[in-house]
Write a structure and sequence with these properties.
Oligomer: single chain
Number of helices: 7
Distance between the termini: 41 Å
Strand order of the largest sheet: 3-2-1-4-5
Radius of gyration: 17 Å
């Protein structure tokens, strides 16, 4: 059974944990902070292993894949260590996309960095996105 570790116990982390368990993954959710009571209840009802207040480094680094919540910076120590071990680190959208036939409109990380480069003002970013989608879409 593949092991998925989810870093971050907010809405995206808990949602990913539920989907992963339904799809047959062994799931462990870890949040350095405190989980909201409603998320703790959901994880318990779904029989999903979790921890809060710390990160069990050994357990995290034994993952086949790590889903990193958006609020966790790439420079976090646990992320750096996972990269050193060449553990794939993905977003919740990347994880969920493998289980849908729907069209997903998105971009790769380099495109995101290009669009949000400090020298690109917001109107420029919006213009570049609109140029890719077409003017029929309003942002």
């Amino acid at each position: 059974m593949k092991r998925l570790v989810i870093l971050g116990g907010g809405e995206s982390g808990v949602g990913t944990a539920i989907l992963a368990k339904q799809k047959g993954w062994s799931v462990f959710l870890s949040d350095r902070g405190a989980l909201k009571p409603q998320y703790r209840d959901i994880l318990s009802r779904q029989n999903i292993d979790y921890e809060e207040g710390s990160h069990d480094e050994a357990r995290i680094l034994a993952a086949d894949c790590i889903m990193k919540s958006p609020g966790i910076p790439d420079k976090a120590d646990i992320i750096k260590k996972a990269r050193e071990k060449q553990i794939p680190i993905i977003s919740e959208i990347e994880f969920a996309s493998q289980y849908t036939q729907s069209t997903i409109v998105g971009h790769n990380r380099q495109q995101w960095q290009d669009y949000h480069h400090p020298t690109h003002p917001p109107h420029f970013q919006t213009s570049r996105i609109r140029s890719r989608l077409g003017w029929q879409y309003r942002l």
